[in-house]
Predict the structure.
Amino acid sequence: MLIKNGKVLIFEGEDVKVKDLDLRIEGENITKISQNIEAKENENVIDAKDSVVMPGLINTHAHISMSIFRGTFEGCNLYTWLHEKIWPIEDKLTEETVYNATMVSILEMISTGTTCVSDHYFFSKQIRKALEESGMRTAITRVLMDSDGEEASNKRIQEFIELYETRDINNDLITYTVAPHSFYTCSGKVLQKSRELADEYNLPVHVHFLESIDEIEDIKKIHGQEAIDVLRKYFDGVHTILAHGVKLNDRDVEILSKMDCGIVHNPISNMRLGCKIADITKYMKKGINVSLGTDGQGSGNNLDMFEAMKIAGLIQGGIHENEEKVSAKDVIQMATINGAKILGLEDKIGSIEEGKKADIIIVDISKSLNNIKMMPNNDIISNLVYNTDGRNVTTTIVNGKVLMENRNIKNMNTEEILNRI
Ligand SMILES: [Zn+2]
């Protein structure tokens, strides 16, 4: 396949640039990036004229089955939302509902430019089945916790082991994480078990970390230590994916900057649940890898990573007055290469480079009324962050396979999926 005439977004050192280039995909991989590549006989040519060709977006913290909670329970704080609203309903979910809800989210992701997602949920075999059918790239898990007792906890651990042991070793689109829910829902016993599983299977740990003010005291009550010391006690030396990191103090940031970890920033979810704003400008200045997530639709509203990019770029100005803060270029990296790094997939995805997997999206920037917010297009990167939304994505390619072309989803029946949910 040849993608011609596009403006290709590439990383040069710390910089982000857009250049007029063509690129060839053979099998799963990008094999050539150059100007004016001649099409071979019978080669499938995608014309990317008036479009940006960029790395597929990587959503590094989501609960994709939560599409069914979209638009519900407005105005709750995190604890009320979880304890009184979400968990009682989740207790009653069925495998079928989770599968159907996952399918809706897969449509949402493919059609808004996300090519890889790191999920955090249960009924994970159903989620895996849906993802396998779709051709998306993902990191999945079975969430662990024991705040409701040991029996339920042991069942979860068994389900995780079974999920991992039944993986298809030939399918490298799907990777795995070990996922204790959080330090306020997991005792030391579950955290210790999580550590053992991470060591045994050589997997990263994906955990909610200092999302809201309420958990700070609860963690001290359960563990007799602050969250950062609990993290060090159980997960020192393991790569950790820390979702949120809103309530980090200076000591936390200092310690995290020396650990093998990254923070997933979920700005929309954090604001919807009244958790305040993570100071990612500070974290990044300290050298901590920060990537981007949407969280589930119940708190994050949707899985459109362009929306998450826009909000992430803007809200740092709400906490940094007259100071240097994250730029549009930083935000693009958060949604792509930083996400690949946090998942340990930076050798395969996250940027458009020869030899990497072809996880690519094509974004319409043509001179049209649809794109009036971008006109005149003085700065493509600024417009990608602040004036683009998922509906501008025309074509989505994962692992060299076209999953959406000219906004037509391939191999999935959109109408049937939406009717089912
Ligand atoms: Zn979450």
